[in-house]
Write a structure and sequence with these properties.
Helix content is 35%, strand content 24%. It is an alpha/beta fold. It has one domain: Spore Coat Polysaccharide Biosynthesis Protein SpsA, Chain A (Alpha-Beta Complex), CATH 3.90.550. Bound molecules: uridine 5'-triphosphate.
Length: 294
């Protein structure tokens, strides 16, 4: 079955990027000239997704405004001859069918996904975490959707993390299937000791879930931080019917932490058609100057 619906949970509090995220949602932090969530919506659309539900909450109205038309601004751009900027804004508002729903209390990623039940109905659906931008030739969620079509099971995007970092991530029990695909039958969230580590593969930023995940989420008790954790529900799914792990290609940037925002900005700026060359020259001069301000 083809996956055409996606959920982007964007209702978190973003405490790790405060104070930037106090009045501006972290999903709206820019990478050069586009907010993080636009890269994510574009990845979904390039992967064949036609309907996107963005989960927001109080204070995240900027996200709705970003995907809306802006007639006054568009008119001003046209009358001042900035046609290409005008066209890019209109194109953005037509990206896909984009819907919004509020998570009324911040009760965790699992709870946010569960809010999408009536939008999704009985279909498999993609989840793109609102603060994880993945940039690559082959859109990451498209790679997961293909794996769903091949196996008809839940699929998680996985990456190996450094040994010293695995204690703050999930750790998956995996067997290699073929190419970059793995069968995953168990997982543990934030392993406490070396003996608990199942592998260095962790779930990062993307998944495709079967509709029975909603019944599992209904039964999932609050876990780490008192929140309903999506990984706890995925663990139940992995143990009962197995899930597929896709070691996706593409570079992931964690917009939920300050270093991730900086890495994304520098790497995307270096490749940017308008500012790339100038930015590279600036960095070269900065290095020559021993990283002292020029
Ligand atoms: P995170 O755990 O990174 O988000 O969730 P957070 O709670 O905002 O982070 P910190 O720890 O306070 O900095 C991953 C994604 O899930 C969304 C977030 O917006 C983010 O895009 N999320 C998280 C929700 O939509 N609802 C929640 O209750 C929690």
């Amino acid at each position: 079955m083809r996956v055409t619906k996606a959920v982007i949970p964007a209702a978190g509090l973003g405490t790790r990027v405060l104070p930037a995220s106090k009045a501006v949602p972290k999903e709206m932090l820019p990478i050069v000239d586009k907010p993080a969530i636009q890269y994510i919506a574009e990845e979904a659309v390039k992967s064949g997704i036609t309907d996107i539900l963005i989960i927001t909450n109080r204070g995240k109205e900027d996200i709705e405004n970003h995907f809306d038309r802006s007639p006054e601004l568009e008119q001003r751009l046209l009358s001042s001859g900035k046609d290409s900027v005008h066209d890019s804004l209109v194109e953005l508002s037509r990206l896909a069918n984009i819907y919004f729903l509020r998570q009324k209390e911040t009760r965790g990623l699992g709870h946010a996904v569960n809010c999408a039940r009536s939008f999704i109905g009985g279909e498999p659906f993609a989840v793109l975490y609102g603060d994880d931008v993945i940039i690559g030739e082959d859109p990451a969620i498209g790679q997961l959707c293909r794996a769903y079509e091949e196996y008809g099971k839940g699929v998680v995007g996985i990456k190996e993390v450094p040994k010293e970092a695995i204690y703050s991530y999930s750790s998956l029990k995996v067997e290699h299937l073929h190419d970059n695909l793995y069968n995953c039958t168990d997982m543990i969230e934030k392993p406490a000791t070396d003996a608990d580590v199942l592998s260095l593969f962790s779930i990062l930023g993307r998944c495709v879930l079967p509709p029975n995940i909603f019944d599992i989420l209904d039964e999932t008790k609050p876990g780490a931080g008192g929140e309903i954790q999506l990984t706890d529900a995925m663990c139940t799914l992995a143990r009962s019917e197995g899930i597929i792990g896709v070691d996706y290609t593409g570079k992931r940037y964690d917009m939920g932490n300050k270093l991730g925002v900086l890495e994304a900005t520098v790497e995307v700026a270096l490749k940017h058609p308008e500012v790339g060359v100038g930015f590279r020259k600036y960095l070269e001069r900065l290095v020559e100057n021993g990283f002292n301000p020029l």
